[in-house]
Amino acid sequence: MKHASIKAALRTAVWLAVLAAAAALFLPKYWLFLITAVFIVGVALQSLGIVTGRTGMISLCQMSFAGVGAWVTGYLNLYEVPGGLVVWVLLGGLAAVPVGIVIGLPALRLRGINLAIVTLGFAAAFDTILATITYPGQTTFTQVVRPALFESDKGYFLFIMLVYGLIAVALEFLSRSRLGASWLAVRHSERAAAAQGISIPMAKLSAFAISAFISGISGGLLAGYLGTLVAENFNMMQSLALFAVATMVGAHFTLGAIAGGLMITLFPELLRRIGLPQDVGNVFFALGAVQALSTGETISETWARLGSKLMPARLKGQKRSTATTTLAAPAVHAKGTALEVSGLTVRYANVVALDKVELSVPSRTVVGLIGPNGAGKSTTIDAITGFLPRYEGSVRLDGRPLEGLSATARARAGVRRSWQTTRIAPELRVGEYIRLAAGGIKPGEIEAVLEWFDCPSPETLIATVDAGTRRLIDVAGVVASRPPVLLLDEPAAGQSYAEALKLGERIAAIPEKFGSAVLLIEHDMDLVRRACSAITVFDFGRKIAHGAPDAVLGSVIVQKAYMGVELEEQAA
Ligand SMILES: Nc1ncnc2c1ncn2[C@@H]1O[C@H](COP(=O)(O)OP(=O)(O)OP(=O)(O)O)[C@@H](O)[C@H]1O
Questions:
Q1: pLDDT at position 223
Q2: The domain boundary residue, chosen from 193, 214, 234
Q3: pLDDT class for 565, splitting at 50, 70, 90?
Q4: Which residue's alpha carbon is at the smallest distance from atom 16 of ligand 1?
Q5: Is 260 within the bounds of a domain?
Q6: Which tens digits make up the pLDDT trace of 386-440?
Q7: Which residue has the CA at smallest separation from atom 31 of ligand 1?
Q8: Quick check: helix, strand or coil at residue 547?
Q9: Closest to 42 (Cα-Cα) out of 280, 272, 263, 269
């Protein structure tokens, strides 16, 4: 995984260096000056890519963070603080961090349009503040001093390319780190992310903080580019245009950020040359954003899709290496009852979904939980894993009550689950997902788990695998974390009959190979027979049977629950 990050980072660094050298050598002075702005805007777009593209939160105040960075840079320049532009820009970025965190706080509770209103409100408030103050050096026309080595316009272009490259490389590493994967997981499904033990507040606030830092840097770079700044450089309309372009191009991709920078910088130039009003640009950006939202695909993703069609199959990373890997020894958990549910009652308004049910899963066993549709099986899993606001009764893990713990805390304590519908972020690679799901797992162990489940190689993009395989990867991630208890909610959905039976065999072997106990919800009775040593049956929110699979599945009460009146009619 580390190897892949280094390769990706090197690739990015090399082609950016080639681009910089070609531009510096062949572009005329005026165009070089314009292209410098492209990459400064590209930095701002990269910052928005973190918060919006990667984490799925709307930020309409990104240029306000840039404004903070620019203001601090201008101030430090005015007072000739030692260190020069590099230090001032970094301090400007740091100054934007607390602002980013404060703006990020409402994101812990708000989503979508509500978060958009809050961030837009901040941008409007920032506009008002800027209208009453001036940028340091604005009235005295004090120019922000560029670093001595990069003073000329060509030099400053190379300086900007250096900064852009450093940020792009850092983001390559970040996007393949657990933090980067957790942002994508949060964007895709907050519930699934919490079930993996990810702290949602931490993921959201870190995204806002790092995004504000990079945006603050872009403001400082702009100060060095223009020399003096005015409030209009950072107003609300700039933030809105940035958001629209980021949505259109996919600013969390290095190429997308550059394409967005080109549009924002060169479009006004083009409009000026053909004599059209500048507002036409905003209309175009808005239409592009609507197009990307309605097709669900940004320009970068379209390029990637078309590019992958042209790529030879051998480069796509679908095949796992043939070398066989060995699973680590099973985890050692407490003996006795791993999971104990007593008197569990759940109501949805007038519907009693669960009525004082009892359930227990001994350690290192597989227990099936079956019942007709609406019997209360998923509700039981939701209650155990902390996804219901309230329930009556108690849930104990290795004898310890879980009441009062959030979903994240329960997952960290060792109750892990999969979902009826797969909730893996498609932008992740298989190995990144397993690492995200299983915490501090070693690369060799990731390979071994994937091999054991017959899943694609770690480098395979989730988006490229079919629904049945995604479910298998989902289960592999939960199993790889080797918790005391794992709850699998219909893991065979989307699999063929043969695949389901094979999965049944694998699930039966989980306690021995990984040390975990399993509570398995399934409708496929052949799979249940293969996997489980005991079965509990629910009907209408009550426990109606428990025991060995053959005895339970052969009992009249269970058959009646499944076939209802049909059986009564046959008996009559
Ligand atoms: N959010 C909800 N609001 C209201 N009622 C709900 C809600 N979720 C579940 N129910 C009701 O609670 C009962 C149990 O539902 P649950 O989804 O737990 O059943 P299940 O056994 O998992 O069914 P299936 O096999 O179809 O997934 C059903 O009557 C269902 O309609």
A1: 94
A2: 234
A3: very low
A4: 376
A5: no
A6: 999 899 999 999 999 999 999 999 999 999 999 888 788 888 889 999 999 988 7
A7: 374
A8: strand
A9: 263
Q: Which residue from 193, 137, 206, 236 is spatially nearest to 433, judged by alpha carbons? A: 193
Q: What is the pLDDT of residues 149-160, one digit of tens each?
A: 998 999 999 999
Distances (CA, A) of 224 to 40, 74, 221: 10, 9, 5
Task: Single out the residue of 415, 417, 422 nearest to residue 493, CA to CA.
Answer: 422
Of 234, 263, 284, the one marking the end of a domain is 234
Q: Tell me how far the alpha carbon of residue 11 lies from the centroid of ligand 1, in angstroms.
A: 49
Q: Is residue 328 part of a domain?
A: no
The domain of 29 spans 2-234
The reported pTM is 0.84
Are 200 and 348 members of one domain? no
Mutate to test the pocket of ligand 1, among 191, 345, 347, 351 (most ligand atoms within 8 A of CB): 351
Same domain assignment for residues 52 and 186: yes
In a domain, 283, yes or no: no
**Is residue 159 in some structural domain?**
yes
- Closest residue to atom 24 of ligand 1, CA basis: 373
Instruction: Find the residues whose C-beta lies inside 6 A of ligand 1.
Output: 348, 351, 353, 371, 373-379
Kindly state whether residues 489 and 352 are assigned to the same domain.
yes
- Show the CA angle centred on residue 471, arms to residues 532 and 424, nearest 5°: 135
> How many domains is the chain built from?
2
pLDDT, residue 87, reads: 97
